[in-house]
Structures are given as structure tokens and as C-alpha cells.
Specification:
The protein is mainly α and 70 residues long. The protein has helices at 24-39, 44-51; strands at 13-14, 20-21. The chain has a two-stranded antiparallel sheet with strand order 1-2.
């Protein structure tokens, strides 16, 4: 990584709802949200239901040779 160029302005994590986590403060706020949801008993399935079909699930077992979808 010593020879890698510095990050650009668009080298940031994006949450499923479109928020760019491009500052320390935004990351800390995001982590506080996660901690609050865990404390409230919200499960991963609850979060998935809330996000809707924006990001479809990945089928890791899909075999493109046996089941071509294109």
C-alpha cells in the first residue's frame, strides 16, 4: 500500500440508504445508530425488511453454467 495513490473524494463507504460515510463524525454517528438498534433488539432481518428491495440478496450458490439467467 505504500505505493498506492492517496484516496480520492469518492473513496468512501456508502450506506444502503445512500449516506456517504466520509468523515470521522459520520462514522461515529453511524456506529451509534447500530449500537442503539442492537440495544433496542432490532435484528438484521428487521433491517433487511426496512431497506426493501433496494439491494437484492446475493445468491452465493448460483451456478451460471447450470442456471443461466442472462
Amino acid at each position: 500500500m505504500r505505493t498506492a495513490p492517496p484516496p480520492t473524494a469518492d473513496d468512501v463507504s456508502i450506506t444502503w440508504d445512500g449516506r456517504a460515510l466520509d468523515t470521522r463524525e459520520k462514522w461515529l454517528a453511524f456506529l451509534k445508530e447500530i449500537a442503539a438498534e442492537r440495544a433496542a433488539g432490532i435484528t438484521f432481518e428487521d433491517v433487511e425488511a426496512r431497506r426493501g428491495d433496494y439491494w437484492p440478496r446475493i445468491d452465493w450458490d448460483w451456478d451460471p453454467v447450470a442456471d443461466p439467467r442472462a
